Amino acid sequence: MNALILLIVVFAAWVAWCAAGIAQIKLEDARRGVPKAERRGSTSLPAIPFFPLAVWGIALLIDLAADPWGTWVVGSVHAAWLVVSAGYVLRDTRRIRAIDTHD
Question: Which of 19, 25, 27, 102 would suit a FRET pair with 41, their CA atoms being 20 to 30 Å apart?
Fold first, then answer.
């Protein structure tokens, strides 16, 4: 796996994870009947950009000792995490829309 592709996958997974957390907060507010304009949010700092860069760097360091295990393991874990987080975002977004259309 190319180092640039790994960086993109790692960042995408972290962004999707943050989006899943925000969607969950918005869903909780929607279930409580909080108006759209007053729903809470969340910040992704310091998770983005520091943690993805650190994980990417660790993967590249592992590759120096045991190529290509660092990129393959980190890439695979983050690809799976991206898929799961994206699923949570889609699920929660559908639930929020269902609640909002009933109001």
Answer: 102
